[in-house]
Amino acid sequence: MIQLTNVSKIYPNGARALVDVNLKIGKGDFVFLVGPSGAGKSTLIRLLYREESPTRGQVQINSKNLVRMKEREVPYLRRNIGVIFQDFKLLPNKTVFENVAFALEVIGVVKREVRSRTRATLELVGLASKETSYPHELSGGEQQRVCVARAIINNPALLVADEPTGNLDPDTAWDIMDLLYNINKRGTTIVMATHAKSIVNKMQKRVIAIENGKVARDEEKGGYGYDT
Amino acid sequence: MTLNSSRYILRETVNSMKRNPWLSIASVITVMVSLVILGFSIFFLANASNMAESFESELEIATFVQDNATSSQVDALRNQILEMPGVASVTLVTKEEALQDFGKTLGGTQSNLLADLGGRNPFPDKLTVKATDPQNVVALAEVVAALPEVDKVRYGQGFVDQLLKFTQWLRWIGFGVVAAFSVAAIVLISINVKMNVFSRRREIQIMKLVGASNGFIRWPFLIEGLALGLVGGAMAAGIVGMGYNSIAMYVLSKLTFLPVVQNAVLFRQVTFGLLLSGMAMGALGSAISLQKFLRA
Ligand SMILES: Nc1ncnc2c1ncn2[C@@H]1O[C@H](COP(=O)(O)OP(=O)(O)O)[C@@H](O)[C@H]1O
Ligand SMILES: [Mg+2]
User: Checking DSSP bridges between strand A2-10 and strand A16-25, what pairing results, if any?
Assistant: First the structure.
């Protein structure tokens, strides 16, 4: 489903974030990206939803070439990719319901469908009772659930997450992982960058370690592999 | 564009105007000022050229006959002038006709007009001499003026020329002022739109993330600019329309001899033109601030 071929990313300031990376990720996979800070994990994730383009090499998703993709095709790519952030990126002046519905509204889905799909998705992430709350009235875990709901409401084939549990306490982090686990079981491919050692070790999923912009390790059912 | 998207866009447009009310007002007023000046300039120029036409043209020499001349003398004079080289035509306006015309412009009962004037018709017989060539007018006028039956002559004496020069001038000044205000209006609208883009940058970021098309993201801002321009244009059209009407009424009632343009077609064209110019300013203003963020 995802294929990176000789991908290098050098930022305009000269930072070499990724160096000649080759990767294949299959449909329905659950992949952890691990590695020290500044290794290039976030950069790799941003390449997947074409927030960034590689300096060299090719990125393909579902046999679509993201490098050759025209600018006006990007929105349609993104409708098929959900993105989750460490800082949730919710809109503070919109309710939970509005934040999630927003993802459908702005791609022109009809109002009735927006309503029913938003309800169903909030049910799925366990936030049905909070739909009229504002983000600041929610705990960190709840806010991340809203972010997850917004990311999956379009039934994306791919869900990318950049340290989604980075701001959460361990118990809450596990709640989110349960949610992601279930989403993955329904067939969604998940690529998640993380520093959460215990989560990676316990989940026994594929682990790709990035160091200095290179793939340093790639194991099925791997462990975190770093201290701290 | 679905109905659904239109509703979203409309809501966002209204919201964004509420966010920066003062800037919105400043933008609208600048558009309005620029278009009010444009509108009045157009009407002024229309009147000036109308006036230039209705005054004796460059080719005409108004020849006033001596008061004591008999009608046969006037006829003879007319034929004499008609035979001069460089004369195209000679038309006679008798003193009676002149008095009648005057009575008509007053609109009163002309039967006692003569009595009101002390039983004496103040108008002389007038021969309107048309020259074949504007170059000959001055020489011809001198010859005609020297004829014994002629009291005095009046011709362009550069008046029309001056009027046209003046309108030419006014055209440039008007153009310059309108251009300056238009630029200011466009800049203000673009600042307006840019500030809204800035205050909504988080929303825009998420819209892009979840796959909203750039067109969809742009629409509310574009419509905002258009709306600001349109409101300014509509206000300008109102002010120019009503203002011109009352000025025209005043002039018609006080300065009856001045020809005033009251052309419904011109009126509609100016109104329509002002609305359109307002929208164009708005579109340009938002386009300027949208092209940097949100490339294709
Ligand atoms: N937008 C950017 N502009 C310039 N340099 C960047 C940018 N993003 C990341 N970098 C640099 O690229 C390298 C990799 O960063 P990143 O992908 O964020 O790593 P990680 O997520 O693994 O911590 C770092 O050296 C970082 O400073
Ligand atoms: Mg990172």
Answer: antiparallel
